[in-house]
Every structure is written in structure tokens, then in C-alpha cells.
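One record is kept unedited as follows:
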Amino acid sequence: MSRPQTSVSAAQVGDAAAAPPEPSFVPRKEGVTDGAWDKHDRLAVLEALQDAEAAAQHREPSAAPAPSDATPPSSFREYMRLPPLERKILLGLSDAEYAELAKSLGEKAFRGKQMRTAVVGGARSIGDITTLSKALRQRLEEEGWRTGRSAVHHRVESHDGVHKFLLRLADGRVVETVGIPSLDNDGKRLTACVSSQVGCPMRCTFCATGKGGYARNLLVHEIVDQVLTIQEELGRRVSNVVFMGMGEPLLNLPSVLEAVTFLNEDLGISMRKITISTVGVPNAIPRLAAAHLQATLAVSIHAPTQQLREQIVPSAKAYPIEALMKDCAEYFKATGRRVSFEYTLLSGVNDGPEHAAELARLLRRHGLGGPSNPALMGSSRRGNRGGAQEDNSAPPSSSWHVNLIPWNPVDESEFKRPSRDTVRRFKEALESKGIPCSVRQTRGLEAAAACGQLRNRYQKEPVEGFAGIEAQV
């Protein structure tokens, strides 16, 4: 199956188009079974890395926006590689880029600040930026500028307050994001679970996202838009962000880092309340450590041995568990930030007492224990920018933590959810070895809560199959 190569204009890719989405590209041969890892998957991973690096080459604003007679990109992938100002999307631009845009329009720099304030404040179209004159708004529209907001295609709410949104992107792809209000602390905490890719090429065997195929990386504005959407739809501020939605964040690291900086500086979300999850990408964790952010790293380990991990996480063949653990230890040394290990419990597969004992030995073997370095934990470093203030007065904590996740049921999967007693025994076995751990509270099961499952159901059914779909373009 090949990608469509139709010509794409800046106006078409600026906001979600009216046409229904095309089926997502699945980068592997028909009939490949779960657990297999072939050249098509490796090529998809390589493509994601190449696209991410190409996007990172344009971190600084270009000298001027592209001329109106410039040749339009021939595909969305080509469009993704354009410098930010040439994509003509307001959301996600830096202060310097907004100033450059205002200058190119013959306006003073403060007009750029007005655009940024309006977009972050919820403007979904150029016409909503009422702080600009009607003439200036019209010129922006004529030149193909868009806010970069996605359409809310479908919304599902569970009985316990979890909201899952299916967003339609500019190229017709669909992506999931989830708003999770806390059940404690008077419900003051609102966590946004965001996606970093359309689909995922890593294809963990228990995950619904991998079954839906992989299309592409998300751009910075497509990541930030998810948080803005949750805030607008739920009418309250997002306090925490976890990159645990669709996709492998470290395959799209440059855009993820830009999005994290934006969330901290523009939305005031504390760096320490942002978590970046990964199943493991060779050489990526050291790059994340080099960014000196104070975000939390969550590693989806899911098995205590290389052999078992390859059965659950096929991409682990390219990243031995010993190398992964070494990188995690180095991440802690470089940042002073605790590493969280996510462990999805699959009944009869990785949930036995022997697995708990082996996991404890693995962590101890790599020195992921003991108190955190107080000097590092109290340092400001380069992790928190903008108005969000950090509390560095908290006492040192352990350098690692295991988060046990009873498996969320997925359509057409042979795996089973472990019993509560099995989960309890696994937790007690770890704690008896001195391993700090917790069990993630399972919520929103009836809302197609397993990551990627709502998208998969959507792709199998026509748009009309969902009630209440409303395109907000």
C-alpha cells in the first residue's frame, strides 16, 4: 500500500479539511501477525526519525515567509518538512516567528504577540482573532494562514468523568487525546493524555494503536492543540500532561520537545507535571537527557527479560534491555529526575511471581535505587521556563518507580486482564524486594479507553456511524 501523492496547498493543510479521512497507511504486508517485526516496520521507524530530524532543521525562523508563487508541496510529508513560517500555521510559532510574520505583513511586532495571545486563548480561526483589524485578518486568510486547530470529530465520556476525543487533522487523519480529571484532591487535577504520532510503528502486541497502522509524526501545533481542546471542551485548565497516547514520542523527539516547551511557557504547565513515555528507541534517551528538561521519563518496559520483552514488544530486538536500562540510569544521573517504569500486566504472560522477582533483580543490577541527589533535585537547571513555578523543597525520592498497569481490553486481542488478586500479589512481591511501585487506577473502560481503540473503530466504520459528529473548522 502506498501513500497518496496529491498536491497539497498551505490553505488545505492549515485547518481540518471537510472531506472524510482516508484509511491510515499501514507500513507492513497484509497478513503479518502480531509479534512479527519485519523490514516494513523498520522502514516506518526510520521514516519517522528522518521526518523528525528534517523538521528540527528549521528551529530558527526563516528570513521571510515563502513567496505566494512558491511551488506547493506535493505531499503532506513534504509539507511537514517546511520551515514553520512556510507551513502558515499560527499555533506553535515562537515569539521570533510571530514577530517575523508581523514584519512581513508591514505591521509592528506587537501584532504578532496579539496573534499568539489569541491563538493560545482559544481562537479556532483567523476570524476569531478580533484584536486584529478586519483588513489584517482578511490578508492573513488570503495568504493561506490558519490557526492550526483540529476538528473535534467525536467525543466519548465514561461514567467516571474520563473524556476521550477523536480529532481530525488537516490531512484527514484521526488522532486520539484523553482528558482525565482526578478523583481526589477535590478533582482539581486534570491530566491530558496526548498523542505524538498518527498511529505507531512500534507495534507492541497488546496495544490497539499498533493494530491501526502508522501514518506519520505529529507536528508541534497538532500536539499542543490536543491540550487546548481538552481545556476548551472541559472548561478548565490542564494541570498535567502525559505523552502516553498514540505513537512513540522519542521517534518524534524534536517536535515533542518543542511542544513541551510551549506547554510550559505559554500554558504555564509545570515541567515536573509533564511525563514523556517511551517503549525505547536506540540513542534517544541520551538526547532527551541532554535537553536538561525537568520532565519525567516513563519507560514502558512490560517484561523483565530480553526474551519475553521481544515477544511483547517486537521493536525490542533493536534495543536490548540491558542497553535500555543503562540509558535509564544515565538519564537519572544527568537530570536528577526519577525514572518511572510502566509494566502492563498480561494474564498468564508476564504477571507471575517469577516475573516480579526478575524485574526486581533487573532494577537492582543497574543501580536504579537509593535516594535522589539532593543537589540535583534542588537545582533550577534549564527545565522550567515561563510563569510555572517549581517546588524544589520536597524531600529526595527514589530514583525509580514501577507503575503496574492491568491490561485494558482491546478488540480482537487474545490477551486477558489479570485478576485483582494477581495484581496485588505482583505488587507485594516487588515491595518485598524494596521496589517502590503503585497500581494505575483503571478508568474509562467503557469509553474505548485502550490507546488507539477509538481510532480503530472509527476507521472500520463510516463517519456517519457516529452520532453527534461536528466539524469545528
Q: What stands out?
A: The mean pLDDT is 79. Residues 39-56 form the longest helix (18 residues). The first strand starts at residue 151 and ends at 157. The radius of gyration is 22 Å.
